[in-house]
Specification:
The chain contains 12 helices and 11 strands.
Length: 250
């Protein structure tokens, strides 16, 4: 039988007893979170705070920027980033323990709600839709942007797309404002923008699914608290939220 949301939080509270017993007052923890998990953590972090009495300071940025923060010595407790970055930081002893996978993300395309929906069901259809668009918005420099550029290079239209591209995050805000016809980003970010309409993911021949993972930072002063948060994000309750935000849990 599937655990109820209250039971899931109850387990977290139980696991936090050691931390609570060792501190006279509520503690603060900092979570470095990649953009793809932004909307999930904005909902889940307050639930964790309510269950434990501790505060979560959430810092959201592309995975590459978060890694640079860690390498520069910025203080945080839990890192959520793409799996390869977590692996590299474990190797460098910046992350302690093992990598814990949390979700997989696909790159998708969206338009302004109510606009005609172009076909994106095949690579050829995507190629036509992007060439027909007057302006395209995507998150240049982020993981989704890198994956999108890889797909465009595969289609042989990278230069044409870049010539009419606008960089934004969230990318979908530019289709809502009318500054772009098509937005490209991880689906979790696209569906979070009110007024945008998801067309769907890139076809399998073009898509690169990104694995996102978690790790407790070696320099954390709140490692027990960070592990409690990590464990909470693996509960059925948290996975339900993650799935609702356009990601595949695990």
């Amino acid at each position: 039988m599937r655990r109820s949301a209250s039971a899931a939080i109850g387990l977290v509270v139980g696991g936090m007893m050691t931390v609570l017993a060792g501190s006279a007052s509520a503690a603060d923890m900092t979570v470095f979170c990649t953009q793809a998990l932004r909307t999930s953590l904005l909902e889940l972090a307050p639930r964790f705070e309510a269950a434990t009495g501790h505060k979560v300071n959430l810092i959201v940025a592309p995975s590459g920027q978060l890694v640079k923060k860690v390498q520069a010595g910025e203080v945080a407790d839990l890192l959520i980033a793409n799996a390869s970055n977590i692996d590299a930081l474990i190797k460098d002893r910046k992350v302690t323990g093992e990598r814990i996978d949390i979700a997989r993300a696909q790159v998708g395309l969206s338009i302004k709600a109510g606009n005609p929906r172009p076909d994106i069901s095949t690579p050829a259809a995507v190629r036509k839709a992007l060439l027909d668009a007057k302006a395209i918005s995507y998150s240049a420099g982020g993981l989704s942007g890198t994956n999108f550029e890889f797909a465009m290079n595969k289609l042989g239209i990278l230069d044409e797309v870049k010539a009419k591209a606008k960089s934004a995050s969230p990318a979908a805000r530019l289709v809502v404002s009318g500054e772009a016809d098509i937005a490209v980003q991880q689906i979790s970010e696209l569906i979070a923008v009110e007024g945008s309409e998801l067309l769907g993911p890139l076809p399998a021949e073009l898509d690169q699914v990104t694995q996102f993972s978690m790790g407790v930072l070696a320099d954390s002063k709140q490692q027990e608290l960070a592990r409690a948060m990590l464990n909470y994000l693996r509960t059925p309750e948290a996975q339900t939220v993650i799935k609702a935000k356009g990601l595949t849990p695990g």
